[in-house]
User: What shape does this take?
Amino acid sequence: MPAGADGEPAGADRSDPLHPLLLQKAATSFSGDTQVHSAFLVDAHDHAFFTVSNRVHGRQYQVKRAASCLLLPEPGDRVLVSGDAAGGLYIIAVLEQGAGGRATLHVDGELALSADALTLKANSRLAMEADAFSLKAGSGDVDTVDWAIKSHRYTLASVELDVMALTSKYTGDQRESYYQSVTETTGRSARYVTGTDTVKAVNLDYAADFIARLSGNTTLINGETLIKADGKQILVG
Assistant: This one.
């Protein structure tokens, strides 16, 4: 009778009542130069070892995952086990996943990917999660319809910064700016302050080409040393 990928007869009933009895058996011991190179079913795994079984031959082993097998086997997966008593048994490949739709690539320690060009593409979503994130490049570009950054603390440092937008809006409870020099050019400017607007400067110079207006319910102009009003006409009252 032809055999399946895991060494059991093709079309074998996976609901065989003997299967639970096999899983209760201790792992099969092997010795000498016995070579193992066949498909097994992953029953369970912990941090270091995987329990694999072949129901047809009544074998069950405790094996490790080979360093080259990046796909993490899960219970229910069919895997290829190879090795001997001297070198140990290792899962060298995942032949078939028991539960499709999700795969995990896992390595112990650090993983470095190196290539002349590297592309990551996801049809629906690309997510990255880490305790710390670092990105270093000679130049970079982000092109997206919507872009949102949420952070408890955000620091941006640059020798030169250019911001261009058709509409710019800043909202917050408090804003502080410190500049050595500020130059602004605008077609129209309007500011509304619900409280008190205070300006303190060593020298204050306001100039208007046509009309300069200062009005208030009570208007106070105080010059500690001198108050001067100069014009071709001075109207009071």
User: Anything to note?
Assistant: Helices lie at 18-23.
